[in-house]
Amino acid sequence: MQVLRLGTRGSKLAIWQAEYVARQISARMPELNIEIVIIKTKGDKILDVPLAQIGDKGLFTREIENELLANRIDLAVHSMKDLPSVLGEGLALGAVLKREIPQDVLISPQGYTLQTLPQGAVIGTSSLRRIAQLKALRPDLELVNMRGNVETRIRKMHEEQLDGIILAFAGVKRLGFVDSISQIIPVEQILPAVGQGAVAVEIRRDDVPVRSILESINDTECWLETSAERAFLAELEGGCQVPIACLARVTESKVLIEGLVAALDGSQVYKDSVEIELPLDYEFLTDFSVRQATVRQVKEAGQGLAASLLRAGAGQILEEIKGLGD
Questions:
Q1: Which residue from 91, 100, 286, 324 puts its CA 20 to 30 A from 57's CA?
Q2: Could you list the residue ranges that cross the membrane (predicted)?
């Protein structure tokens, strides 16, 4: 294999991620010629409607996956949080790169934090996950729909004279807007989306040569964290956008998994956590069977956490939200 075709969306952040993956591969296999192929997705074409109203899984991935399955590209680079919790037939994760800080941030022209925002402040976000948690934390805030890339949202914030916008730290940092951040929001206040801050590389399931190439850039810690989070989401997920959040963190030889399901208006929030022990040598899981067993362990913990939230009452919230789309 001399040319490796890498598929991606065309946004600045997506291009950054694609180039990041390309650099990581090139550093280990400089003989490869990596070609970046830009593919437009449905989510890129519909910019004036909140994502929750579109109600479609794979908004930012399906067209890229179709190109992958058609063998017109060799791998696809995504923001992990855009990937459906269950991949399509014939597809698999090939690698997950080292994670950026997964938290959300507040960008405010006045330098506010969530605590110092004035009564009735106007905040821009289109994420149901963020909206539900913000309403639970600060029910006085006025929340307005805000979509687009990082630059677009910052521009709209100033044009519409908003008091702030909520974004993911990873995208803000990767596009060079760290100096605009007013607050990195603690996970105790807003729990991030599943996979937030992680870059995922998707491949054809049976493509052994590409899988072998990607093995060298895979980050074991991030793979374990996102495996737990995606298992949590898969256990809960229905057919619509819902306020679900989950964050797994590897610390020493443990994984702490925190999960949340909230009502759309923030009136009910179901939140819990679980901690599991890992093999002492988890960073060096080179034996395939040992690594697979460890991944199964964290997935089961994520599923168990989701099941406990369902038993506590989160299932009723999810059913009510699904009913709104019928």
A1: 100
A2: none
